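[scheduler] slot 2 assigned
[scheduler] job type: sequence-to-structure, two independent chains
[scheduler] chain ordering preserved from manifest
[runner] begin chain α
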Amino acid sequence: MTAAATAYKSLYDQLLINTKAAVKKQNAQTLKKTLALLNYQRLNAIKSKEADKLIQINKDIKKANKETEDPQVEVDSILLEGLKVTKETPKNIKHIQDIANFLSYQRTYQELIERYNPGLTMTQEDKVRRTANRVGLDLPEDLK
């Protein structure tokens, strides 16, 4: 494999990893919203004693949980076309390798920031739960 092909493969791999992580995060947020809506509809169906609607909502909840498994993603082809160069000079190949390295390092940096500063990406509910836990209290089940 030539140096240019290796550089492009490395860039493609890094773009794929970053795209997959972004899609997973977006899917998790969408699932959370969907489950909140379905649970609200479920409570309304229980109050109004609509058994058929309740059964359908329970099926929708199970379906929503299954759909958020490992996403199948592809790298944007327009982005890859924009990064291809006509001349495979050492300078251009080095530039592609630098972009791939930057993506890798940026992802590692973000993981470390999240690991050592967990409060940055935590929701308000999680912060309250952890604060209560720190002083020896447990939140009631209906708040969790």
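[runner] end chain α
[runner] begin chain β
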Amino acid sequence: MDKASIRREALQNLKGMTSSQRARWSQQLTERLLASAVYQSAQSLGTYLSMPHEFDTSYLIEQAQKDGKQIFIPKTYSQGRMDFVEYNPDDLVKSRFGVWEPGTYSQPVDKSVIKLVHVPGLAWNHAGFRVGYGGGFYDRYLVDYQGKTASTLAYFQVYDFEPDLFDIPVKELLIFEELF
């Protein structure tokens, strides 16, 4: 199956989940991520502000704030460029993709500041390579990123596919294995 087909199928499956299924999936995987050594050892976290059909990052952001971690979220630019900026819920705007992201007052931080990046996607293979929405933002960002990476996904987001040359694998996959 090619990436475009995987992208369509995974997106359809995600959008087919009920809100209670998504909440259970998100809460349980957040607890697993919070208990992981990769999270525990990180003083800072780069994560995304989820869309309604995605893994709900609000639980993760809330707990990371309580844990005293610095939280950074992505800001996208043209040509697939992306930076992370400090999370400020009072400075958010809707991007051209319909995603909440930092507004104009946010300043990018150096990659070395972020110790763990929580990487979104639509599908992953067992080696950690992912299929995202097709913009290549995370692959470009992660190409020279030295910190740790993790993704939270449901069992139905695991596919068998060959990565492209420019794909960057996620180092740790937390997979929700339960049937809904």
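[runner] end chain β
[qc] chain β: The chain has a mean pLDDT of 93.
[scheduler] slot 2 released
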